[in-house]
Design a protein that fits this description.
homodimer, about 45% helix, DNA-binding
Chain lengths: ~150, ~150
DNA sequence: ATGAGTGCAAATGCTTTGCATCCTG
DNA sequence: CAGGATGCAAAGCATTTGCACTCAT
């Protein structure tokens, strides 16, 4: 994952600075969808002068280059996802945690019937809307918060 | 829609103040998913002393009572949706506008095969996650932004 | 009358910006 | 060695909070 992203940085004509290298390395193999704050906290020990501006600049540059995506699925801060394969997300209503959900086997095949049906729905609700991506969002409680909830209700 | 919401306000044991009445009326038949700011701007002429605190308090109370929902689908401000029937959303990546997308006919029937498949996917990606709602999010450009884009690229 | 609700202003948290300086390509 | 990238601090929004006052029930 790191290699693919670093290759992408060059391919996009972005300069490879120590800060960007650190951010790419921190993000690449992280499935926790960190916020800018979390990334900064994690990198500060190694690069004490790194600033929010740089973290945001870099994450924005990476997502503009199609190397990661920024998620706005819950109130509060944006989260960043290095996984560019199509997939869904589960979002905890309590703590905001986001998990990747793999596509079901049936969703990985060709578009088919399903796609046509979806296109019709969008046309009905938002004529002229140009769909670029579709994802499913599961909302509820993550394992940790669900457990805490059960304990509290006892 | 207004009547249902006002009934819900009573049923939830919430006091019906002029501010709440105005907010409910403004939200009830609005399909544009207004932000707190937009609602306040719209209501200020009639109730000049209305404050953000009241708008947020009320919207929060309404969604806690299950009378509207708050959407966090794009960066920036939350949007509020009076439509409590299951439906999907189309979100414009450029301007943040949100449109309701009706469920396709096939989605309205009983859960069936589909639901089981989804449950399996969630279990695979986020063990222990307690799903309370599932929605589809279509991302892309709304008609207006798509048109602007086409013009710009000419 | 009483406590939920309101309004104001200040505080908080996330993100962006301006600009001087630095360093990659 | 030129222009992209960084770092700092200040500014900008969205949202929340504290508290005295008001009013719906």
């Amino acid at each position: 994952m790191v290699q693919r992203m670093l290759g992408g940085v060059r391919a996009a004509g972005l300069r490879l600075t120590p800060q960007r290298l650190a951010i790419v390395r921190a993000l690449a193999d992280d499935t926790s969808h960190p916020t800018a704050q979390e990334l900064l906290d994690r990198l500060r020990p190694a690069l004490p002068t790194m600033s929010f501006a740089t973290v945001y600049n870099t994450l924005f540059a990476l997502s503009a280059a199609g190397l990661c995506s920024s998620l706005s699925l819950s109130p509060g801060s944006s989260r960043f996802d290095p996984n560019m394969e199509p997939h869904h997300h589960a979002v905890c209503d309590r703590c905001g945690a986001v998990s990747d959900i793999p596509l079901a086997a049936a969703e990985r095949g060709g578009p088919s019937r399903e796609a046509a049906r979806l296109r019709r729905s969008v046309g009905a609700g938002a004529p002229g809307f140009e769909v670029r991506a579709v994802e499913r969002v599961f909302r509820g409680l993550c394992a940790r918060c669900a457990a805490r909830d059960r304990r509290a209700r006892t």
